[in-house]
Amino acid sequence: MDTGDVLASLGVEGATAAAHALSLPAEAYGNDAQLEVLWAMKAYNHAEVYYNLISSVEPKLLKLTKSDEKIYTKFREEFPDLCIAVLEPELLKSVEAKEKWRPFCNQFEGVVEDFNYGTLLRLDCQKDYTEENTIFATRIQFYAVEIARNREGYNDFVHKAGSKTKQQKKVES
């Protein structure tokens, strides 16, 4: 079912309640299946919007947050050799990686809105969001990796492919 259909089926009151529920701290909930579905839908919508954005706009021109420069600088100071073209999940998810990422992420508390919210992150920057090419990361990890991919030219492939598709559609019509 399309996420737009799901949200529309909630009605105004349901959508308002869902928005309020998503704004509460995680400690306020147990393992609520409905809440997990809402979080998954929100993460998927974020991923879809972002992919459409880098497909349409030259990635080097994008500004994802007010703190892009700080995020990029700190990211490359802390992770100078991290290969961002194709991410290895262990470099984000292993116990050792989490110990290194935690101080990086926490320095953005109060600086980047929702810095620790769950977000989908592509492993291979030349591919779309698929089950095989996606991991769950914090929002600040997403920003760090994607700002670096945009600045360092790794997302240019997606933009060029999107531009080529648009040109083909114009020619066909």
UniProtKB/TrEMBL annotation:
One of its GO terms (cellular component) is cytoplasm. It comes from the Eukaryota. Transmembrane segments: none annotated. Residues 35-159 form the Polysaccharide biosynthesis domain. This is Protein PBDC1. It comes from Carassius auratus.
